[in-house]
């Protein structure tokens, strides 16, 4: 899952006072704390929903458990692998920035 940034396609409106039924739900989801790093899920960051713990987590944060099952697939697919590595890098950069 990924919530596009406010104002972008499929993202919530930039105007928080809008009357769309979906926008507040998207903002709420983006503000939800990641199960692993406790930081907001945020916008433009891939995440999954953990049904057992009933909470979201960033792909990068659950790296160990998330990576294992697709490791082989990534090895066979350099394009997907490159994409994944880029996302992971981006995720880590965002974490250090927001940690200030
Ligand atoms: Zn809206
Ligand atoms: Zn996280």
Number of helices: 3
Helix and strand element order: HEEHH
Q: On the 0-100 scale, what is the average pLDDT?
A: 85
Shape, per Cα inertia axes: globular
Low-confidence stretches: none
* Percentage of residues in helical conformation: 40-55%
Estimated radius of gyration: 15 Å
Class derived from helix and strand content: mainly alpha
Give the strand order of the largest sheet, numbering strands 1, 2, ... along the chain. 1-2
What proportion strand? 5-15%
Instruction: Please summarize the sheet with the most strands.
Output: 2 strands, antiparallel
Question: Number of DSSP strands?
Answer: 2
Explain what you see.
This protein has one domain. The protein is built from 3 helices and 2 strands. The protein has helices at residues 22-31, 63-76, 78-98, and strands spanning 47-50, 55-58. A two-stranded antiparallel sheet has the order 1-2. The structure holds zinc ion (ZN) (2 copies). The site of one zinc ion has 5 residues, from loops.
